[in-house]
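Hey, sorry to bother you again with one of my protein questions. A protein chain has come my way and I'm curious about its shape. I'm sending you its amino acid sequence along with the backbone structure tokens. I owe you a coffee for this, so here goes:
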Amino acid sequence: MNLIIAFFFSLVACWLISNPIIWLLKVFKIGQNIRQEGPATHLLKEGTPTMGGIPILLTIILFMIIFVNVDIDMKYFGLLFLFLSYAAIGFIDNSLKLKRRQNEGLTGRQKLIWQVIFAAIFSGILVWGGHAGSVQGILKYLHFDLPWLYFPFACFVIVGGSNAVNLTDGLDGLATSTLTVAFAATAILAYSLQLMDPGIIAATAAGATLSFLWFNMYPAEVFMGDVGSMGLGALLSGLLILLHKELVFAVIGGVFLLEAVSVMIQVSCYKLFKRRIFKMTPLHHHFELMGLSEPVVVILFTAIGIIFAAVGLWISPFI
């Protein structure tokens, strides 16, 4: 019941917070710069307000401070730090793009360095608190209960998860809808494990992202921006690490994984064989260039996300 209350309260709170922030983004013309090499139809979105992920972040932070023992339990303080630090990377990246008036902010190397540093701090807090010792299932069988193995593994999950979500944020409502599904599944998973604090955070995030979808669905009134996608990707990864369901992330976040893998396959094949497997990556652009409309691609990927989430919940007790 607490999770349902958190979901609906965050749904309303995020909607209320979003309205004035989106108005300010429009007033100060905080508009998105569209990359020229993308689908031609996306050029019409030039100037659409970005950094709309800010109200989502504010809603989640507010609920975490009120309902979760952030100041008492170090692992939740670490999760809040991880969430804010990755959102800060996205904010700086968005700000540089706006300042330069082009779709180039921080370099990939700069982002990766800071992502690894912040992931290492969070993972270090968990390892220092003995979190690695409570690993179960396949990971325990593979000896990931050893701190020196668990530490780099947790960093990999966080960095990979955040970047995968960021890659997914390329169509109106795509990242928002798939994140809503993933956070809702994580809340259900936390409830089944009787871990209420992670459940409340996940339910809050699900409510906030669903609320933001009102403004972000096609045609988008505002974009989430890197400040939202990177922060939320890190939060989702961190929650599943706290639940010790690290491997389930690959299933619950199956859409994000597909998007990331499509990019890796495309880059690898082009470097090795000078050939492209997909018309364009991330994967959602491939379907766009096949002739599917943007809303249809979003609906298709969200449906796939729901299937992945259901499968993830089903297999979670076994891994």
User: Anything to note?
Assistant: The chain has 13 helices and no strands. The longest helix spans residues 74-100. Residues 143 and 149 are 8 Å apart (CA to CA).
